[in-house]
Amino acid sequence: MKRALTTDRRWRHILRVVDETLEDYLTGLVALRRGGVADLKRKLTEGDVRDRLDLEQKQPSPRNAPASTGRHPRTPRRRLRG
To answer: Residue 21: its pLDDT value, please?
Structure first.
């Protein structure tokens, strides 16, 4: 019976540590998200962020760009003697 109580106490301790760790992790994520949102708002008010449509008009994306017709220059392979 004593062994069962000890095991139960250990599991409760483990669960408490896991709960505390998860709470700290989530608190950190919230702080990180708030910082990211604040940074994005600052960039938007300062005009540092360009409009996505503006970027797409100036530079074609790789999938919209025409395919290359030329081959990449390579050194010729040597034939093995044998």
So the answer is: 97
